[in-house]
């Protein structure tokens, strides 16, 4: 048994619906006629006549008026002598398709010569835009309402304030509410009352929309009231401050993104150089192999699916090549770091030339999947999705590597060998096998980094070379043998680079960072977080 | 005249000096005395090519001095080579005078192109030969001294030093690529006309430059050989073999290192200065880390810590490079890479060691 208020509400709804049905039929018919008359008058009217007619049309509350006014603004509204009616044309050329302006019924193709264009000018267009915006304000669709308020912000019209205020009192969408308050404040700037202008300016202070700055700047310079000028100036300063904050946040984000690329490039090196003490100059080429693996998978798989496949594949390819390098070259050179450096440099040349001979010396383009392209808003900050994903990817790789070193049997053995080889062997660790696997791990991570790089830069035979100096710098800066040091170093170098860039340009920023690193190593030869104890003296 | 003992005992060195003398006299003779269609006639191109090898050999000697005797693997020695080259290139640039494309007697072409109105201050004086020649020594030497002094004082050694020398040359390369630096940016300095009034395109000038390169190599070799035979040389080897022990014995390790590093950089600078007029161009590519590492491999191939080996390695590897990049360009990097691996694994003491071993068994 439904409760009484519910029954009453049900009746009310029914009654309202019935009333509405009653109202729509005839009222619509009457409106149609009125709209037709007004539209027909447009043809003959002069400028002021047209202004009045547009106002009357906008006041009609007829569903087709918005379309017709839009057509008028676009110069697509015609008078058809033959049917004595106003039509909307669409398409180019001598023959255009027309439809009735009021009913919207299609009337077929007709030669332009039989039509009479209803002329307009820019002042009328502005008026129409404003009236259209007012019409949009009442729309049930929040998107349209939003567009309508945006239009107000672009063309502020003080005469519309009342309508905006009325809308503000019933609006529920918080974003549109904010926009409405902003448009009202903007309209207030034109008020004859200085106190209202001050109020408006104060409301607008700190808002980031570019449309607001022009009127405020003008007010700060030209307003005849000194308090109003002051208020506008303060508002502008607040906006400026917020913009600056936003700029810093943006720089920070770019720095994080560059830093995560540096970390990805360096972290594999931190394993081979830091844990094993092996200088692997072919590290960059292993990244290149990872990037080429990505390219190859894209030849066989759709782009959107290729990356999840490419990551493990690149790890495998690079790790296998790395193990091959370790078994064939590096294991004969343990304890002779300078010779290792030269030999692995030789390997890097061979790998480069191999790629050049197999794939061609030209760059290969690796496509970005759909889910990595686009922009995402983090509050007022807009960031590109691919950079965000690479930051996340870097964190994931770092976490996995850290877990692998801290929580697995292999990780334990790797750390044991790194700390004291002889003792580890005495405890039964097969150090040769551990060496090969550690090198494979470091190389595999280089391959994974290559997948990320393929999304950012050109994939070519020289890909590795451009990162090798940077990655060594990151490892040395952070302190050899310390993964967290690598992370801190990569992030700080990335951010430092991006902070310097606007001030000095990209190349000079890089030079400054390199020179800083050279000086830093003089001061602290073992990096930010040096290893302590016996293991430090290799 | 009696040769000093340190030279007399150095049989390989004497052989090298003899070979250089023969080259310095023989090569110009083969060019000047034989008719052009004679099979033994050497063209000006070949002479310049050999001259280039000799410059590389001098660079290799300077690398060997610090690597072979002092244990510092510098991956940035090409930076000193290129700086010397740039200094001399600036002199050659000023010698073009009004014969450039824009006909500006004061500014080099690239500055006119960049709309610069006057010569930057650091170009002052480079129209004088003596000044440029001095700078060829001073600029690389000063950089090496400052860099080395700070690095050695804070005991940066081993791999760390190698990596920061590489960073140094990389940073310089990036800097010289910038047009704002005032060294011609990407294109570097080129289009030289004459040196001391002699046209660079004349065969005579080329022969003189070649002879000077041979002389410089001989001089550089003798200076290094003398240096390593002195007490200072013994200290160098002591530092290489056990730096801490040398320090505990009371030697000022960082001073010795900085001094020898500076001297080596000056030698590299001279090599660069002789290289530029012969090849006719110097650009930031000379700073590329690969060039420095190539210089190291010349030394490794020949045999480090021998000085003669450096010369042999530089000439052989570069001859192979000229031949392979012409005949089989695809193979060159494979060969160079393979050489790096093979030499470090199989021939850690270089080719010279093979010869020494035969000598010892005979």
Give the SSE map:
The complex is a heterodimer of chains A (538) and B (362).
Chain A: H1 4-44, H2 47-59, H3 65-73, E1 77-80, E2 85-90, E3 95-100, E4 106-111, E5 115-117, H4 122-137, H5 142-154, H6 161-170, H7 174-188, H8 194-204, H9 210-222, H10 226-275, H11 283-300, H12 303-328, H13 337-359, E6 375-378, E7 381-384, H14 385-407, H15 409-419, H16 421-426, H17 431-454, H18 465-478, H19 483-504, H20 506-523
Antiparallel strand pairs in A: 1-2, 1-5, 2-3, 3-4, 6-7
Helix pairs in contact in A: 1-2, 2-4, 3-4, 4-5, 5-7, 6-7, 7-8, 8-10, 9-10, 10-14, 10-17, 10-18, 10-19, 11-12, 11-13, 11-17, 12-17, 14-15, 14-17, 15-17, 18-19, 19-20
Chain B: H1 5-8, H2 11-32, H3 44-68, H4 77-96, H5 109-113, H6 129-153, H7 158-177, E1 189-190, E2 194-195, E3 198-199, H8 203-229, H9 231-241, H10 243-248, H11 253-279, E4 281-282, H12 289-302, H13 308-327, H14 329-346, H15 350-361
Antiparallel strand pairs in B: 1-4, 2-3
What does this structure look like?
The complex is a heterodimer of chains A (538) and B (362). With 538 residues, chain A is of the alpha+beta class. Chain A has helices at 4-44, 47-59, 65-73, 122-137, 142-154, 161-170, 174-188, 194-204, 210-222, 226-275, 283-300, 303-328, 337-359, 385-407, 409-419, 421-426, 431-454, 465-478, 483-504, 506-523, and strands spanning 77-80, 85-90, 95-100, 106-111, 115-117, 375-378, 381-384. In chain A, helix 5 (142-154) packs parallel to helix 7. The model of chain A is unreliable at 19-27 and 534-538 (pLDDT under 50). Chain B has helices at 5-8, 11-32, 44-68, 77-96, 109-113, 129-153, 158-177, 203-229, 231-241, 243-248, 253-279, 289-302, 308-327, 329-346, 350-361; strands at residues 189-190, 194-195, 198-199, 281-282. In chain B, strands 1-4 form a two-stranded antiparallel sheet. In chain B, strands 2-3 form a two-stranded antiparallel ribbon. Chain B is globular and about 60 Å long. Chain B starts with a helix and ends with a helix. In chain B, 47% of the residues are buried. At the A-B interface, helix 13, helix 18 and helix 20 of A face helix 6, helix 7, helix 12 and helix 14 of B.
């Amino acid at each position: 048994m439904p409760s009484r208020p519910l029954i009453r509400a049900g009746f009310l709804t029914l009654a309202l619906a019935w009333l509405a049905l009653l109202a729509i039929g005839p009222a619509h018919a009457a409106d149609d006629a009125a709209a037709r008359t007004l539209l027909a008058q447009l043809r003959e009217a002069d400028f002021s006549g047209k202004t009045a007619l547009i106002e009357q049309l906008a006041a009609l509350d007829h569903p087709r008026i918005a379309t017709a006014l839009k057509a008028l603004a676009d110069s697509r509204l015609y008078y058809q002598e033959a049917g004595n009616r106003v039509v909307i044309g669409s398409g180019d050329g001598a023959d255009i398709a027309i439809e009735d302006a009021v009913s919207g019924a299609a009337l077929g193709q007709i030669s332009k010569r039989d039509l009479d264009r209803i002329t307009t000018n820019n002042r009328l267009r502005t008026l129409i835009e404003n009236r259209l915006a007012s019409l949009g304000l009442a729309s049930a669709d929040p998107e349209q309402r939003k567009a309508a308020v945006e239009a107000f912000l672009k063309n502020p019209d003080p005469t519309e304030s009342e309508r905006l205020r009325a809308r503000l009192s019933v609006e529920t969408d918080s974003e549109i509410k904010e926009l409405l308050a902003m448009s009202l404040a903007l309209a207030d700037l034109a008020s004859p009352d200085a106190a209202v202008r001050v109020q408006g300016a104060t409301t607008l202070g700190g808002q980031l929309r570019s449309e607001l700055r022009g009127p405020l700047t003008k007010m700060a310079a030209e307003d005849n009231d000194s308090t109003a000028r002051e208020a506008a100036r303060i508002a502008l300063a607040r906006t400026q401050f917020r913009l600056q904050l936003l700029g810093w946040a943006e720089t920070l984000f770019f720095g994080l993104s560059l830093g995560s690329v540096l970390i990805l490039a360096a972290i594999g090196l931190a394993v081979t150089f830091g844990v094993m003490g092996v200088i692997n100059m072919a590290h960059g080429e292993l990244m290149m192999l990872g990037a080429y693996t990505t390219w190859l998978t894209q030849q066989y798989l759709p782009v959107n699916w290729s990356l999840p496949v490419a990551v493990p594949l690149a790890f495998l390819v690079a790790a296998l090549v790395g193990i091959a390098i370790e078994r064939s070259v590096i294991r004969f050179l343990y304890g002779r770091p300078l010779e290792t450096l030269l030999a692995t440099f030789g390997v890097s040349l061979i790998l480069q030339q191999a790629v050049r001979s197999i794939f061609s010396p030209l760059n290969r383009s690796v496509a970005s999947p759909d889910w990595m392209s686009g922009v995402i808003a983090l509050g007022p900050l807009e960031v590109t999705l691919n950079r965000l994903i690479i930051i996340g990817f870097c964190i994931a790789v770092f976490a996995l590597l850290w877990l692998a070193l801290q929580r697995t049997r292999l990780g334990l053995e790797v750390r044991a060998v790194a700390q004291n080889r002889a003792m580890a062997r005495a405890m039964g660790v097969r150090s040769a096998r551990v060496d090969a696997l550690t090198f494979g791990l470091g190389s595999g991570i280089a391959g994974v980094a290559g997948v990320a790089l393929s999304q950012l830069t050109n994939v070519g035979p020289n890909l590795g070379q451009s990162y090798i100096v940077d990655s060594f710098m990151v490892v040395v800066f952070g302190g050899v043998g310390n993964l967290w040091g690598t992370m801190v170093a990569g992030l700080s170098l990335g951010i430092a680079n991006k902070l310097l860039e606007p001030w000095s340009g990209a190349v000079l920023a890089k030079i400054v960072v390199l020179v800083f690193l050279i000086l830093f190593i003089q001061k602290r030869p073992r990096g930010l977080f040096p290893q302590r104890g016996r293991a430090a003296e290799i | 005249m009696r040769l000093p003992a340190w030279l007399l005992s150095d049989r390989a060195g004497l052989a090298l000096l003899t070979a250089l003398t023969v080259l310095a006299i023989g090569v110009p003779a083969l060019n000047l005395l034989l008719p052009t269609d004679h099979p033994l006639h050497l063209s000006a191109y070949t002479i310049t090519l050999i001259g280039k090898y000799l410059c590389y050999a001098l660079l290799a000697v300077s690398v060997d001095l610090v690597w072979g005797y002092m244990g510092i693997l510098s991956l940035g020695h090409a930076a000193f080579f290129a700086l010397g080259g740039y200094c001399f290139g600036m002199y050659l640039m000023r010698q073009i005078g009004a014969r450039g494309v824009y006909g500006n007697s004061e500014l080099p072409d690239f500055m006119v192109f960049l709309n610069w109105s006057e010569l930057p201050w650091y170009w002052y004086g480079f129209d004088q030969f003596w000044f440029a020649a001095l700078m060829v020594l001073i600029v690389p030497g000063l950089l090496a001294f400052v860099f080395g002094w700070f690095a050695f004082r804070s005991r940066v050694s081993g791999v760390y030093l190698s990596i920061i020398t590489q960073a140094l040359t990389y940073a310089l390369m990036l800097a010289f690529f910038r047009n704002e630096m005032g060294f011609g940016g990407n294109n570097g300095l080129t289009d030289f006309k004459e040196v001391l009034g002699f046209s660079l395109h004349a065969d005579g000038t080329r022969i003189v430059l070649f002879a000077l390169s041979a002389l410089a190599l001989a001089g550089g070799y003798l200076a290094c050989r003398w240096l390593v035979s002195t007490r200072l040389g013994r200290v160098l080897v002591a530092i290489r073999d056990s730096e801490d022990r040398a320090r505990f014995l009371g030697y000022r390790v960082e001073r010795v290192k900085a001094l020898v590093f500076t001297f080596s950089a000056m030698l590299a600078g001279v090599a660069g200065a002789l290289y530029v007029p012969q090849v006719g161009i110097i650009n930031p590519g000379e700073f590329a880390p690969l060039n420095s590492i190539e210089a190291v491999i010349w030394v490794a191939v020949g045999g480090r810590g021998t000085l003669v080996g450096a010369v042999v390695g530089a000439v052989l590897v570069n001859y192979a490079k000229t031949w392979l990049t012409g005949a089989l360009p695809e193979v060159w990097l494979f060969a160079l890479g393979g050489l790096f691996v093979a030499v470090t694994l199989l021939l850690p003491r270089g080719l010279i060691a093979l010869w020494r071993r035969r000598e010892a068994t005979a």
